[in-house]
Amino acid sequence: MSQLPQGWSEVRLDSISExxxxxxxxxxxxxxxxxxxxxxxxxxxxxQGYINSTVETITEKGAELVPSIPKGSITVxxxxxxxxxxxAKEKSATNQQINTAIPNETVESKYLFHxxxxxxxxxxxxxxxxxxxxxxxxxFSAAPIRLPPSKEEQKLIADKLDSVLAKVEAAQARLDKxxxxxxxxxxxxxxxxxxxxxxxxWRENHCELTNKMAGVFITDYDGNKLGELPxxxxxxxxxxxxxxxxxxxxxKETPDAIHLAPNHIEAxxxxxxxxxxxxxxxxxxxxxxxFSGQIVYSKIRPYLNKVCAVDFEGLCSADMYPIESKxxxxxxxxxxxxxxxxxxxxxxxxxxxxxxxxxKALKKIPVPVPPEAEQVEIARLVSEFxxxxxVIEMQYKAAKLRVDKLTQxxxxxxxxxxxFSPISEDEREVVAVKMKSSQPKPDDVKVTLVGxxxxxxxxxxxxxxxxxxxxxxxxxxEQTGEVFKxxxxxxxxxxxxxxxxxxxxxxxxxxxxxFSELKSLIEHKVVIQSGEGENSTFKVTKK
Length: 543
Known about the structure:
By secondary structure, the protein is an alpha+beta fold. Helix 6 (about 180-195) runs antiparallel to helix 12 (about 370-415).
């Protein structure tokens, strides 16, 4: 932020509030939980103002074992995802991942809430360099807070922020509905396309059409009668609509070839997210070769609906099928993207741990087939509709980017003493230039898939860690380390949250000690870590 406005002061957080670190009641005593007192955890906090509900509650008995916080207290996440802020709506308790500021008579609670929404960057810079980012009570207490000269001015700023940010949040809420609406639109288009509804009017002017595949039509699938289709339409088995081309090759022979894996394809859209080479992706095991003009389909987790058309050649994961269409390629792609096709394939997936559909089951999936000319018309119409949806999606992303930045911009202005001052022409011009430059161009928009990790997509399992067993080091930790004893008593990995809850001394100093011990255990290769950040799990190295 800029320099202090005239008459303002900068103070430590603990000079205007009492700082309380949360603690979890023992879960061994079931009657500590399930009462009427909110038990706040990080998942309950997302900068929403008052906390209206919590996933867990505790009883009066449980509350006697942990620090309680009064109504109006400001809770801040201080482990893992730092800096999420909310206000307790009533007497509550928090777990050990949260520090709470209980404002004294010198500060307006809502003002402090809004100000603490601005300190995330400060917290990240001050965080301890452990496995998971931590701001302990001592550091949190020293957070710098800017205060206007009077409590009345604090209230004025807080009330104005409530009003302005409510409008921003309303805009965000409306924007957040757009992805769901777009998904429904795309699926409704695909449903209309594959049922004949989309080309109903077109068929009235093309009555002379016949279907060359009528000889292989089917009426039943998996013991059930298939739905009705327009005249000259019919269902065929997938084996009659396309041919699966399995041809495994050694990737070492073509290091510069494009490698396509399930994580490179966006679910439900048919979009390819990125193109990488075999060498860059570190591919070692045999892969299928695919060619331009084919469809590539992921057999892993069919419900994720990862399928795309390719106009280039390369290698794809062995967990994918290169498919040669016997129909119009784009039409078959839209069939495979439809909810009905996904439903059929999901019903036939095998294996519980890593669902997949094998070739035998895929070949039996029913495909609705119109006459060839109608396939071409459907492909054209669907392409036009989906292109319009993409334009709207790009506009949505640009708008969301601006709105997401708006909250922090407003907060920064408020705590620089400028919330009530008019914007000068110079400032207005600077804002206009920045907004224009930040607006993404169509060619710059990239979609990032957040979903299955590549390692699980490719092989269905996590590579085994290199483990070095040391009985001398283990004996040392056996005698001194609570974390090691706890991990050794378990037959499976434990998350950081599980370790917090299981250990008796649930305080920030204990958490610091916990991560120090974990770091030492990992360095001595007595414990191994799987995953990263909040998804990390820890377990004792196998002998």
